[in-house]
Amino acid sequence: MKSCFMSPAGASWHNLRMTFTPAFTLRPAELRDVSAIVDLIRELAEFEHLTHLLQVTPEKLRPHLFGERPAAECLVAETTPGADAHAPRSGSVVGFALFFTNFSTFLAQPGLYLEDLYVKPAMRGQGIGEALLTRLARLALERKYGRFEWSVLDWNENAIRFYQRMGASMMPDWRICRVTGDALQAFGTGGMAADNVSRLRA
User: Fold this and answer.
1) Active site amino acids
2) C-beta of residue 140 within 8 angstroms of C-beta of residue 100
């Protein structure tokens, strides 16, 4: 998510910057924001009790947002001079939404998948999260995407209610399947155990 590249559909970011309240603005992430985004990702991992999974660093993230073939895009929320006195100083990155393009075979259309969204606690309740989601929904429409999707932890009831109020549908019949780390290495190199193959065929 950024002004760093054009979407596959050719949508431009040139008119993306816009003010939603006197307290913050949304804009495409820039190269100078990478360290701040990583700091927010670390805060998100702490909130979700998933710090043991963290491997992100600015050096690892940078090429995936701003390299020759970016894998993802990012929006950031930045404070303005009208921010609350207890909020971070003006110009601070206080929230982000990192997303990428996926594809639906049933719709025969690309879609927008939101990987992570996070807002600093001191800036919550000001509409930043809703503004980020609304801007991404608008971007999906501009790019003629068929879906806007994301995942939410089942214990995060506040977030679930918030998303439902915005019109999102929960998908209780679907489960996320993930192969990572040593399992991915084994799977990708043909080292998958025979009993696991049998289970997949069942």
Assistant:
1) 163
2) no
Per DSSP, which regions of the chain are E strands? 18-21, 24-28, 73-79, 93-104, 109-119, 148-150
Q: Residues 160, 116, 147, 106: is their CA dihedral positive or negative?
A: negative
- Name beta bridge partners: 118: 96
31 secondary structure, DSSP code = G
How far, in Å, CA of 95 to CA of 30, rounded? Answer: 14
8 burial type by CB count under 10 A (0-12 exposed, 13-18 middle, 19+ buried): exposed
How far is 31 from 14, CA to CA, in rounded Å? Answer: 16
Q: Both tokens of residue 21?
A: 């309240």
For 77-116, how does the pLDDT look when each residue is reduced to its tens digit (9 = 90+)?
Answer: 999 875 555 556 678 999 999 999 999 999 999 999 999 9
Helical (H) or strand (E) element with 187: helix 181-188
> b vs e for 37-46, b when ≥16 Cβ sit within 10 Å of the residue's Cβ?
bbebbeebbe
Answer whether 16's CB lies under 8 Å from 22's CB: no
DSSP letter, residue 44: H
Token look-up 């924001």 returns 33
pTM metric for this prediction: 0.80
- Decide: 80 and 90 in contact? Cβ < 8 Å: yes
The helix or strand, by DSSP H or E, that contains position 27, with its residue range, turns out to be strand 24-28
